[in-house]
Amino acid sequence: MTGTFNYEKDSDNIVTVTMDMSGPVNAMNDEYMALMGSTVERLEAERDSIAGVVLTSAKKTFFAGGDIKSMLTLEPGKGEAEMFKMNMEIKSVLRRLEKLGKPVVAAIHGTALGGGLETALGCHYRVASPKAKVGLPEVKLGILPGAGGTQRLPRVVGIQMALEMITSVNPIGAAKALDVGLVDEVVEGDLKAGAIAFAEKIVAEGRPLVKISDRDDKLQEAKDNPGIFDDFRKSIARKTRNFEAPENCIKAVQASVELPFPDGLKRERELFM
User: Fold this and answer.
1) What does pLDDT average to over the chain?
2) Could you give the angle at the alpha carbon of 213 between the alpha carbons of 167 and 134, nearest 5°?
3) Nearest Cα residue to 150 out of 246, 10, 20
4) Residue 136 in contact with residue 165, Cβ under 8 Å?
């Protein structure tokens, strides 16, 4: 592994972590786990001297999602155990990032798909360039988002929007993401500089950290109307007939309403496996 997560602290104690993995894109695999794990460990160790964090990318796009090639090389019979272990580790490191106690801002350009959006959802805030696109397209591969996406996305955009995004595979643009609350600001011009300025503003205002796992206001629509899930199943039944993944996606999102966040992550893992 020759990739790095470059770690740079400025005079205002804002740390910029720039993801630059060894392949042509940033992808969720063993290298990601090693780099993200060591980065979060360093942030935790230095948290008292850190004002805020910006997570950005050196690639042409923020994050391409899961490393499907590495998944396909898993040995039958052993691959399940490896995948389960990686899923546990990814969920754990994103929870630690979320609990850092300092504002973490994801700076998204290009695309943040699958594990990339899930990484961004592990941050407290998200800013994006005007042409950025975000989405959770795993269902297209016959799987579901496995790094917390089915539990965090509904808490940000609401149940109906989350169901549509997770089962349709179509990403949404920055303007739409801003409109539904998935990103907090669209940055014109230099994204890195804009993200740092956003982090500085958060710190200066003393704005409370927004841990998505603690939010439940956007889940209220489903608590008031439990039939929303069956209604949605019916609305996509013709298009998804005989496919298992869309139904498991719905079940995972439903868990975000019916279970506490940690238990929802476990249910997501069960359905993912």
Assistant:
1) 93
2) 40
3) 246
4) yes
Catalytic residue among 118, 188, 258, 270: 118
Angle between helices 261-272 and 79-98 (to 10 degrees): 150
Contact (CB, 8 A) for 112 and 136: no
> Which of these is catalytic: 138, 185, 258, 268?
138
Q: Is 138 a catalytic residue?
A: yes
Active site residue 98: no
pLDDT tens across 74-127, in order? 666 666 777 777 788 889 999 999 999 999 999 999 999 999 999 999 999 999
Predicted confidence at residue 147, as pLDDT, reads 93
* 234 Ramachandran zone, left/alpha/beta (phi>0; psi -120 to 50): alpha
SS3 sequence of 130-186:
CCCEEECCHHHHCCCCCCCHHHHHHHHHCHHHHHHHHHHCCCEEHHHHHHCCCCCEE
Nearest to 95 by CA among 268, 217, 234: 268
Q: For the chain, which ranges sit under pLDDT 50?
A: none
pLDDT score of 121: 97
CB atoms within 10 A of CB 180: 15
Q: pTM of the prediction?
A: 0.94
- Whether residue 213 contacts residue 155, with contact meaning beta carbons closer than 8 Å, is answered with yes
> Is the CB of residue 57 less than 8 Å from the CB of residue 116?
no
The pLDDT assigned to 20 comes to 97
Q: Which amino acid is at 155?
A: R
